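Suppose you are handed a protein chain with no further information: no name, no annotation, nothing but its sequence. What can you learn? This example shows the usual starting point.
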Amino acid sequence: MKHGRTCWEIVIISVHALYALRLQGPSITRPSITIMLLSVRISIVMFAVLVTVYFLPHNDLTVDGFSFSALKTRHKRPITSPITTTTKLHDSNSGGFFAKFVNEIQEKSTEQTKSNLPPHPSYSRDYQPNKSVINIPSSPLPSHTTTVSNTLPNGFSYCILPNASPSGRFEAHLQVFTGSSSELQHQQGLAHLTEHVAYMGSRKRERLFGTGSQTNAYTDFHHTVFYASCPVDIPDGQGYTNSVFNGGNAGKGKMVGLAFDALAEVMEASCEDSRLEKERQAVLSEMTMVNTIEYRVECQILSTLHRENRLAKRFPIGKEDLIKSWTREDVVEFHRTHYRPDNVLLYVVGDVDVPDVERYIREKFGGLSAEKHGAELKEDQREKAESFAREVTRTVKSEQSWHFPPTVHEWSEKGERCRDESESSYDLHLQNRYDMDDETLNNLPEVSLPTGGAIRPHVFKHELLQSFSLHLFAKRRIRPIVTVEDFVASIARRIVLAAMQIRLNVSARGESPPFTFVEFNQLDSAREGCAVCSLDLMAEPARWREAVELAVGEIKRLGLYGLTISEVERYGGACLTDAAQVAAQGDRISHSDQLGYLMETVSCGHAFMSPEQSYIQTEKALQSLTLEQVNEEARILCEHIVGLADGEEPIGGPVVAIGCGPKDNASADPCDKDALIDTLVKAANREVYPEEDIIVPRSLVSEEDLNASIEVQKPEWRSGSFTDGTPDTPADKVTTPLTLRRLSNGIRVGVTASDAESQRGHLRLVAPGGRMGEKRLGFAPGAAALGARTMQEGGAFGCWTREQVELFCVDHLLMVEINCNDEFITLDFVFPTTEVGNIGYGDELKAGINGCEAVLQVVREIVRGFKWEADALGRAKASFHSTYDGLYKNLEGMSAEKIIGEMTGGDQSFVSVGHEEIDAVTLDEAKHAVMSQLLPSEIEVSMVGDFDTKEALDLVLKYLGTIPADANEEFLAKAPNADQAVRSGSGAVAPTYTVPPLPLPARQLDFELEDPDPRAIAYVSGAAPNSWGFLAGGGNLADQIQSSDKNPSTFDGQRRGHPLFARCALLLISEIVNRRLFSNVREKRQLTYDANFKFTGYEQIGGGFFLCTVTASKEKAQEAMEACKETLEALVSSQPISNDNLESAKRVVVNRHEGEMRTTRYLSELMSGLQLDAVPKKGPLSLTDFNAMVQAITVKDLQLALAALDVTNNLYTAIGKTILPKDYVEGKDGSPALTRGAVGGTRGGPLTG
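A reasonable first move is to predict its three-dimensional structure. Written in structure tokens, the prediction is:
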């Protein structure tokens, strides 16, 4: 895999680093390392994350109550501000969140809970939830003015943040300050099981179903969280309009009462034996489901990083033998010990009336009693809890934030090496051996270096790994940001991190770069109670030393020489631009994003400012920031690397290094502990020199060249036309809600203004064909896919080099992603809509060009002047080889790939490109396969953003309208089957491409994957229409439904004749089936933790498939698969769709659609295809009529649709299972058997389903 970061990936990662400046404010939350282990196509994952404009990752590998996946990442973008919260009780002389009301808790603590039960540790005078340990700052940061917080007499704390977006909704999160790190030796996994039992056993939680609410829970090291996202008003027809749920007021009921009822019931949960058994089975199934190789790598990383404390041995999922053994009394004991009103904090964010919410809080939570819970505990149970609580006083939980886990850390900082040790015999940090443990991590000693430093090394090898990865860490104290001085330092630190990331990426741009991924960062982690500075890289195993030496050398260069002036100007300007975008967003940032950042910021002790306040502070900080201040932060960030070199002062604590790679590596230079240490020390002693600047263009297209093109091409607007019956749109008028036209060169253009994401935009270019077009034109299999990846790996055009184009995109905050799927080649761009690439601040400001203009310049040059490079193809091939190998070492990926292959008769267009096909593609074939589809007459551009529509259209006309109409026709002419090309203007009424006929009879398939850990996955699949109802054999689902209805009304015919009917019907069916699978396969049958149903959802290709996926133990896989089949059969027989099912699904589908409509990416995706002949039935009505069409669907429609789909016959089924590798011997792989199985967590924020 001789390839590095692609040009556009560098842009994505680099802008990712810049967005961290804004979105995280001073606190940057650590992202999951597992993400980068998924594949070399990490940029695509990151791109998908980044287009959620407001919050950047806060990503824990936690255990959540409904669905858990180490591969799923919730990214929460902080509001750009550091956080010190403003409250009604705010004391201007104090610096921390809840500063005043915490003091009130202290005053009240002696008046309450007067019994034999001592107050919970969080309630004591010494340490409390939300306690700030920060002294009164000399220059305090301003605080958000609308946050309200308080505490009830029983110790129950809450915080309310009014927020406008989305209107009519709110979120409530109940945070219990107890997680897996609070478990005793015999309780490993009990925090998670208690969460399941408490919430899944709640009858009041069930009242939220069908109201358009989403609710879930998750457990982590440091806390357990239960949450509900709900509409403000109870929907009509729910029967909750009486005074009980409306606070005694007449009129529509309030959902806040129902939500609080559900959360309050968690605090007083009764543990029924039946519910305990259901949730025990769900947790055991969850252990199997999450145990992917990425998850196991993450376990190794966390266990080594935190070897000195209990985080290495208290993963949320727990121990299987213990989970199987617990009784109702065990769960009740844990619940009553920790689920007390003085050990929780309720967050409410949304479109709410604060006094009204406070009244509900008093009503629903005021009656909770710690004394009542304490009365249910036996004396020996109290003694154990009190013994644990006494030791907590010596940890970061008590000394810095009650939100942190009860741990101590060995800090990787300069100065005297010191770690607090417990004076008692209680082994709080689990350094002794215990019978219940696997081999402990105490056999991973640190290696002292002659220079005085130390490295804690570990090497993990596994059959399922195909690449080498290095994870190098230094643990530091979280520095709370509460003063102006703190904020300036945080800005400097973020500028350094952004510059370092871009340097690393550019250094990997040679013809044979050693990296396939590299990232350097420092992020705060409340779940671990520390800040972690990390270097993460991936490389092919044979080149691991080269990759490590280059990356470590770059960090040393940064630590010794710092940044250049131009780098500080570039990334400082981007930081200010980003802060301005968020300030413009204001309280239209989503509730979930605001709440996630609020929780994380409170946990870390930062100041909580409004976006406007943060922008002002950012501008002030940048005006005063000096190069010396920035380079001092660079020195601090890199001191653990510099300190490994001879003659340098080492840090006080260890540098943690984990190397991961293939178990059976035939490399002549394998990585072991000694080799890893030698390579790190050699890299730290490598001679380095100061960074040299690259000249970055302010514009990619000169005014002279553009004017000349306008004179020759004479661009004009033409009317737009559609296949859904919408009349042609005028060429000279801006229309609402969309302006849809064509340019005189044939390019279809859709533009709409949206201020949902302030000062942000999304542009999508689609070219019909994709891999199906590749096949039709006679190109080699995989040529179009490899060509698209080669574009992603390249980036030079015109007179500009790749490096110059990369930095142009970085300066202008552009993100680019190029893909080829079965039906389309797509180019996605995220861009700012304001002037970007600015240099200087205040009176010295030199403005750059508008972001809309910058992105259109890039689009124009890609279509008409892209340079195809052999080294870019080489990196693309290496990426595809790696992805293919990874796919076939992943149980889920391999099984899904094989069943789709069987159902398509082995058609290569529908499966991954294999090694032989990859190697066979030439640069010319890749180039021709892509460019023959990028024809102006065939492509469509959709542009959405916070801009003036008329101004955007003028720029489109100027830049895209000057692309010659015959551009790229020469590539199509050379296609082997050029005469079979599908051109526009054919007036298509049905898809040109279709999936192959389903091979019959259908059959059962069995797959095996070598893996020592037992896992299984099962599938039930069959034929289905595409998103618009078109079937593989011809015809449309809507027509079949109408013809099968024996007595249709006139309205039935009109409804089913609407072009959007089939799409809406399929969305509703998918939602209903998923709910049934949960009820039957998980709740009733207790066979799985997670089962889901989805359609492939093709748009241009006729036909498709539905796929029902269920994870289970190997022993229950067959039974779980049969249960899925029974669920589908029941829908058309014994348990047909009911009106309640339909109404509930409608609320979910509409709420999801309306929520996603607030993002520019979703809007641009919906707009793609509106003017394409290749996508019949898709037109403007698909946006304007969506909600009305969903509401018009009837139960009869869906029953007829299920009958037409025939979900009970001709079903393909498959089971994928792991088997032991040949000659496998447990614990004999050359490395200690660290906590094995599904027992880990990623770094950052919670994962939810």
